[in-house]
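Blinded run. Sample ID left blank on purpose so nobody reads anything into the name before looking at the predicted structure. Input follows.
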Amino acid sequence: MPALKVSSDQRAELRSQAHALKPVVLVGAEGLTDAVLAEIKVHLGAHQLIKIRVFGDEREERIAIYEQICDTLNAAPIQHIGKLLVIWKPESTQPAVKAKRGALPSAREAAVEAKPGKGRAPRVVTVVKPSEIPMRKPKAKAVVVRGNERVTQGGNIKRAKKRQTSAKRGHQSSK
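Blinded prediction complete.
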């Protein structure tokens, strides 16, 4: 059994966050080697929530790999669909604390501990929005901004858009 337990609400929140992620580690025909485990550990330390693609047709082997990764790295299993595995490990070594209002405490702690600078993610940003009633004071709200997100001038969080590719390049490379 994995050492790290996650509540069902927190697991659902993490699954929704992992939906847009792409696999960062691929487990090939060699299986789960020390090098692959080291790479998974590096990515867990950098991103906390990762997807892993396991190439292999045997379901039992994939489940064994999934459990071995979670046991070895003290991570929480979030989701296993087909050949994709989703794993989460909070940055702090303490057990996961119940999250407030769906926000993950480990992301906030990581943002506070990180050195301030451009491009650091996840980071906590204070957004001040004016109240709908002009007589009330504006409210300050701390939000977590992840790597592919930005804060707009109105105080909303938006995901970064994909870069546009040239229409000509597509025709040139298909010859």
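Unblinding after everyone has recorded impressions. The longest helix spans residues 59-73.
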